[in-house]
Amino acid sequence: MANAASGMAVHDDCKLKFLELKTKRTHRFIVFKIEEKQKQVIVEKLGEPTESYEDFTKCLPADECRYAVYDFDFLTAENVPKSRIFFIAWSPDTSRIRSKMIYASSKDRFKRELDGIQVELQATDPTEMGLDVFKSRAN
């Protein structure tokens, strides 16, 4: 099922791995990449449950767009442990214009395929998705 706007299909593995993250918590994060030649979104990297936020940010290329999902654990003001599933549209200023356009036009449809996203972030540099941003958006 290709997206009418950009023609990008979503590989079944994307939905499967997201479901694992959401229900079984077998992954801390997932980085998705658009494979332009195959015209589809694929899983590029899976983060182990033990991996940190820093491990996650290192997986995002400095000059290429990506989609990512991050399972963010935090404590509420009442000291109750909770988690939120963040969807990050990573689009650095240094990435190619064509790439930015493809990612932007495919984002909404791709996000709809991942049922259970709670917070969305758009980031063009690491400061826009720092831990402080996650904490402020999680509550």
Automatic annotation (TrEMBL):
Limits of the ADF-H domain: 5-139
Keywords: Actin-binding
GO biological process, any: actin filament depolymerization
Coiled coil spans: none
Protein name listed in UniProt: ADF-H domain-containing protein
A Pfam cross-reference name: Cofilin_ADF
InterPro entries given in the database record: ADF-H (IPR002108), ADF-H/Gelsolin-like_dom_sf (IPR029006), ADF/Cofilin (IPR017904)
Stated family: Belongs to the actin-binding proteins ADF family.
SMART domains: ADF
Keyword field contains tRNA processing: no
One GO cellular component term: actin cytoskeleton
GO molecular function term, any single one: actin binding
Keyword flag Translocase: no
